[in-house]
Structures are given as C-alpha cells and as structure tokens.
Amino acid sequence: MDMMVGVVFTILISRVSAHGGLAFPPPRNNYNNTDPVNSPGFDCPGLECHWFNEGCWIGCETCTMEMPEGGNYWNKPECKGRQPMEPTLPERYRTWNIGNPSSQGDWTRYHPWRAPGYAPVVDPCGVAGAYKQHGDPVPPGSKLGDLGSKLPKLGVKTEWTAGGVAEVGAMMGTNHGGGYVYSLCPAGEPITEECFQRTTLKFVDDHHTIRYLDNGTQFDIPAMSVNEGTWPKGSTWRRNPIPACNCDNGRGCVYDKKGTLTSAYADGAEPQPPHLTCIDGDGGPQGHNDCKCPTGTQFPVPFDYGYGDKLHWVKLKPNSPDRYMWAVVDRVRVPEVSGDFVLRWRWDCEQTPQVWSHCADVTIVANKTKQDVQLNGDVVV
Fold first, then answer.
1. Are 362 and 233 in contact (CB under 8 A)?
2. pTM of the predicted model, to two decimals?
3. Contact 187, 175 (CB under 8 A)
4. Which of 114, 132, 170, 181 is an S-S bond match for 87, by CB 3.0 to 4.6 Å?
5. CA angle 303, 309, 313 (to 5 degrees)
6. Once rounded to an integer, what is the mean pLDDT over residues 120-149?
7. 250 or 125, which is more confident?
8. Cα separation of 180 and 290, whole Å?
9. pLDDT for res 34
C-alpha cells in the first residue's frame, strides 16, 4: 500500500519575489530557516531564491557566472570554444516563444529547458548571488560565489517512508518558463550533479496541487510530465504549469499610442481570462507587476491568477487568500532505500540561460509493513 508521508516540520509560507525557490522541504538555502511571515515585503525567506546558476547553455562545459552579452533574453551562447548542443525537447513541451513568432527568431534555442538536464551547473545546490562580480543580492551568512553544496544542514527534520509517496513543493516570484525535476543524493557522498543524476524521483500522478499557504485552500490542475529528450535519459521532469504573458519579456506586452504591438507577439496567443482584474499595490487600477496580458499568455492559464511574469499578487478582498501565496505541489515516489539523503529541486529555465537549484535534507525510514522486523532473535512479519 502506498503511504502518503507526513513530514516532521511546519510547512513554511515562502514569499519568493526574485525568481524561484524550493518551498518544502525547507532548503539549506533558506538562511537560518527564516520565517517568511515576519520577513519584510515580498522577499524570499533567507534570500533562498538568490541561489542559482547563471550563463548556462545546453551542451556547454560550464556556466559563465556572468550576465550574457545583450542580457538574459536575446543572447548568444558563450561556450568558450565549444558549440552548444541542439535542442532535444519536443516542441509540444515548450513554454516560451512557442512556434517562434518573435522577431528574434528561436532565441531560446540553447537555453536549459530546450534540453532538460543537459545544461551545466556551477553547483548543484546553487551559487550565492550567481554572478562572479555582480548580480542578485548575496544571501545572508554567505558571500558572493559561495556554493550551495557547502551549506550546513538547517536542523529541520523531514522524514519520508521507503516506498511511499512524499509531497514536495516550489514557488516562483519571477516566471522564466521551463520545467523542473526532483532528485536525491545519499548523505555522506560528495554533493555533485552526477550524484543527483543517479536518482531522479518519479511523479506518481498526473496533476499538481495548487496550495494557498496562507489559508490552506488547495485544488488540482493538470500536470505535463516530460521524459523525452531529458537527461539522465528517461528521467521525468515537469513543465512549469504557469504561463507568462505572450511576448519575449513575458511582461510589458503593450500597444503603443498608434495601436502597434510593441515587444510582443499575438498570433496564437491564449487569451487572458476576461473576468480577472488586476490592482497594484496601492489599490490603483493600472495593474501591478504587469499582471495584464493584452496579447494573451504563452499557453492556457490553468487557474485564476495562475499566470504572468511577476507573480506578486495582492489580496482583492479582506480575509481572501493572497493571490500570490501558493505553491506548486507534486507527489513523488520514495525509493525503497533507507538512510539520510540530500533532496535537490532543479528548475531549468527556457526564457533565460539560468538554472535554479536548491537542496534540502530528508531521512528515509524503512516501511515496517513491508519488511520483516527482527525482535529478540525472532522474525516478526
């Protein structure tokens, strides 16, 4: 019998304003296991979302840790003497510039999600600030360039049952498309990308659960699992289910005063749900963080407010759930092993040459209903 495993900690509310972060189990990247409820503004707890890998193109030997020439969008691969590999992802799993209507052509061609798992990383658990000399804020307790694999444990106990089913969840603050995978590395072994590649976790159903962490509301939406063109071969990833606005930037998709569409493309756009309205942080009517998508979205919106680039929604009514305070929850199969492990969430982006990766600690215990237990020399079944 499958067992839904309870985790021995309180699920944290994660306000991830910058990019993305593992919500639960709580990652080592969350400095001092910061309580986001008491954190100012919309910042992610412990600045966990500022641990990632920058300048990572598929087929390159390593990431540059530098902002690409021309920025993170319309860039050319920087492989330092090597040629990037061609995409392996079937077109139906794309999340950005689908059908390549952009005036820039197929500009995401060598970004990580176009060949899931093939892009290199500097560190499998992320890099503090990501850049060599500048970039995102440096997380507290760290310095620019610190490696996430060297972070100490949080001291939070998360326990899974061998052969059972466990819940994992992540949140995004800035939507870069793409998709993600969860994997394990045995504690005590060097924490490397190769170690995580040996044990990628399988998803056990065909849906995500959207869980509002401020009031417990939750509901299911369809999931798109991907095991074609992935690395390790046959590993199962999941497409990011949240579409951005339908233009290269994923935001700012607007018409100019002459009615000409700027920085955007409309052909084949999925419409934004017409009943949704946006208000900015001051209650104004113009829309906060480009939540209006006049050109539609990259693909269909899976639930109300589940779309856009900046996902910092505010409450529309008193006592209603915060429109931003939700995590994408998945259920994964726990391997038939026991011991201490490092869990890794890896998000390969399509809009940018970036890989977000955070690591947490889990203990897998034997399922006593499946194994013989020896007691005082006798075998008890």
1. no
2. 0.87
3. no
4. 114
5. 60
6. 89
7. 125
8. 25
9. 66
Reported in sequence order, the residue ranges of the chain that DSSP labels E, i.e. its strands, are 20-24, 51-54, 127-128, 159-161, 165-172, 179-186, 207-212, 218-222, 225-226, 237-239, 254-255, 261-262, 326-333, 339-348, 354-365, 373-375, 378-380
**Distance between CA atoms of 272 and 292, rounded to whole angstroms?**
8
* 49, pLDDT greater than 90: no
> How far apart, in whole angstroms, are the C-alpha atoms of residue 312 and residue 326?
11
Parallel/antiparallel/unpaired status of strands 339-348 and 20-24: unpaired
Residue 302 confidence (pLDDT): 92
Closest CA to 228 of 85, 112, 84, 91: 91
What is the DSSP annotation of 353-365?
SEEEEEEEEEEEE
Other Cβ atoms less than 10 A from the Cβ of 352: the count is 26
- The reported pLDDT for the residue numbered 37 is 46
Is 208:241 a contact under the CB 8 Å cutoff?
yes
Computed over every residue of the chain, the mean pLDDT equals 82
For residue 70, what are the contacts with CB-CB under 8 A and spacing of at least 6?
76
Alpha-carbon distances, residue 335 vs 19, 43, 363, 373 (angstroms) = 30, 34, 12, 19
The amino acid occupying position 53 is N
- Predicted confidence at residue 356, as pLDDT, reads 96
Residue 65: name the closest of 76, 52, 77 by CA.
52
Tens of pLDDT, residue by residue over 8-20, are 333 333 333 457 8
Q: Which two tokens mark 116?
A: 């899931």
Nearest-CA neighbor of 130 among 356, 311, 309, 330? 356
Return the amino acid letter for 149: S
H helices present in the chain, as ranges: 193-197
pLDDT at position 273 is 77
Check if the beta carbon of residue 299 is closer than 8 Å to that of residue 246: no
Q: Which two tokens stand for residue 236?
A: 């199962």
Closest CA to 75 of 242, 246, 248, 230: 248
Distances (CA, A) of 9 to 33, 49, 154, 331: 11, 21, 12, 17
Q: In angstroms, rounded to a whole number, what is the distance separating the alpha carbons of residues 243 and 178? A: 10
